[in-house]
Structures are given as structure tokens and as C-alpha cells.
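lol so apparently i was supposed to do this last week
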Amino acid sequence: MLQQPEWPDADALAAVRERLGLLPSLIFAGEARALRHQLGEAAEGRAFLLQAGDCAESFHELSVIAIRERLKLLLQMSAVLTYGATLPVIKVGRIAGQFAKPRSSPTEMVNGVELPSFRGHAVHSDEPTLAARTPDPERLVQAYYQAVSSLNLLRAFTKGGFADLTQVHTWNQEFVSTSLEGQRYETIANEIGRALRFMQAIGIDLGDERSIHEVDVWTSHEALLLDYEEPLVRKDSTTGDWYACSCHFLWVGERTRQLDGAHIEFLSGLHNPVGLKVGPAMEPDELVALAEKLNPRREPGRLTLITRLGAGRVRELLPPLLRAMREAEIPVVWVCDPMHANGFVTDSGHKTRRLDDILLELEGFFAAHHEVGTWPGGVHLEITGEDVTECLGGSEAVLEDQLDTRYETLCDPRLNARQSLDLAFRVAELMRG
Ligand code: PEP
Ligand code: CO
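anyway here it is w/ phosphoenolpyruvate bound
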């Protein structure tokens, strides 16, 4: 089985799996069905998916502030997209469980020392010592409890008034509001406020409108560690079907998507909506075979294909994939991950991405769908609400010699809040165009 940690103690792992199997599920199967239904709308061109969050969540970032700032940005981006494109936006976080990373190389160099590559806090510590990098199954239980508390707070914020549309101004963070994007956001927030007052003025009772006062923010992460995911699969008592209950939506990554591999087998047995990353090596017939396995009943919303093809290649590689899937008549949500095929390492040794390349891949994604006549159903992004310097560019450009200032990611470089908002405006324009 690919990309699994070498747990040093099989008995300890077995005991952890047993404990996880006895713990309550994090989600209710009915929620996964509701998300599948919403994604069905995106598959058929009536909604848009915004899936975003950290590359790797950290065990050290469980504060109210950390979660609140992530949520704020997601709500802001979603307001920009909804207002700009006048379409429902489905909000899915890479949050409350994104603790495991696949790696291309088993080892990495840290300060001149070769160490086992960092595989996420669900596996080991990121500290650069051999002892700290030894996999510890106890961390799977810790990942569970961390996900529980994140999800609990998310539910409180999204259902308890924080995400109320009348709060649209308060989601603009101070370091964002002074920027060009922040001011553009203020304009939209003002217009949303006016629209709400208009509705009230003509006698619509906004107090009763649940959709104004509450939002659904669904959770997702990569289905990587099967020793974590398998014990959290539960049989839904209302339908008798099997659901992954560690989050609402799981995806399989580019490194573990083999047709006969354990990860695809695992996803194929679930009833949740699921995702598949699609990299530049994917052949059209291979994609159809994978989709056939993951969505044999051809349900809209069951399968999301997350393409990450690269700014320079998306226009050439995406159309044949779109045509092959249309010919196979398997409905899917097409989503663009403009992050993972546009990374590079600077001379100073920082892994980074250019906002311009990210936007270029997004443009190519929309152009390919326009060419073939399919629906560009969403975006999948690595972002953070913090004012980090990990990706290059933006209107208040992060320059190469500034990467060191606040380079905080545990794995891949994320867009900061200003860059993310900038991107949301560009996507809204692409959707309108
Ligand atoms: C990721 O989403 O963080 C990731 C590792 O992506 P991919 O599998 O597409 O490389
Ligand atoms: Co990543």
C-alpha cells in the first residue's frame, strides 16, 4: 500500500485502530448526502465549489483565532463569488482533519541533515530530528480529537450567527481591508447590505430566512492514512450504506490514485461524495476507468475531479479529458487545483508558487471548458487567513527576498488572505465571462 507510514509497533497500531473504531463519528451520513446533492448541482452547471484551506493543518493551531480567521476568508471569498457570479457557492474546507501528507521522496534534507520526510502531524512531529520523525500511532487519536474540536467550533460559528450575511463587513480583516482587494470587498459588502435592506423595505421578513443567518461549511481532507480512515467508516442506520465519518468529503491524491490501489478501492466502497486528483500524467481512458470505478451508478455529485495540470499545459491536457468523460456519460464536478502543478524552489531554498501562474492555470481551465462546452464547477486552493509570505506576487506583491518574513507552512506554500481575495475576484470575472 503506497504512502503509508512505517509504524514501528504493530500492536500499538492495532490498539489505536480499535479505539478509533469505538469513538463517535464526526459527521452524520445525512450531511454527506446533503453535500452530494449540492455537488450534483455543480455537476450540472447550477452551482460552484470553493474548496480551500491549508496544505497540512497543524496540531499547534487549534486556537479560536486560527479557526475564525480561516473561516472569515472562506466566507469572504464565497461572498465575492456568489455576488459576482450569482450562483450558489458550496463551501468545503481543507480543515478539521487535513493532517497527513503524501511525499514524493521518503527523505528530505533539513539544515544539511537527511531525515524522514514530514508526513503530517497525524503521523509524527515536524521537528527536524530522527526521534521526532518516527511515526507514532497515538497521533491518529490526537488527530481525531483535534478534528472534533475544530469541527465543533466551525459548527458553532456557521450556525450561531458569525456567518450571518448581515456580518459581511466583519469578515474583512484589518490587514486586508486597507489593501486594494479589501476595498473592493468593502464595495461588495456595502451592496449586499443594501440588497438586504431593500428586501426588508418591501416587506420580506429576513428573520425567517435560514440561508441568510446560517451557512454550511463542509469538511474535507485527503484519504491517505487508511489506518485512520477505515476505523471511522460507519454503517448508516437509516439507509444501511457505508460512510466515511472522519469528514464529509474525502479525496484521493495524485500519488495514490492507481486503479488497482488500496485508496481507490477504499473510496469506491463509500457513499460520501469523493474527489480524485488528476495530474498531467493522467490518460483519458485511465480517467474514465477510475471514474467508472468511483461512480458506477453515474450519480451527479458523487465524484469530483480535481485537475492540477500546470499553467503551461492545462489548455493542451484538459480538453481530451473533458471529452473522454463526456463520451463515457459519467457526470462529475470539474474542479481546478491551480496550486499543485505550479510549484518551484527558489535559490534561497523556499518552496513557492507565483500567483500569476495560479491565475494562468485558472484561465486555462475556464478556456478549456468553454472550448469543449462543459461546466467549470469549482476551485481547490491552498490558502490561509494569515498574513504569510509563502506565494509570490499579488497587488501588494510578495517578492522573492521577502519569502523568509513569514514563511510558516508545514508543507506547501499557501496564498495569504489578500492574494486569496484577489484570486476570488478573478474567478468571479472568469465565471461571468
Ligand atoms: C495536496 O492536495 O496537498 C496534494 C498533495 O495534492 P496532489 O495529490 O494533487 O499532489
Ligand atoms: Co499541498
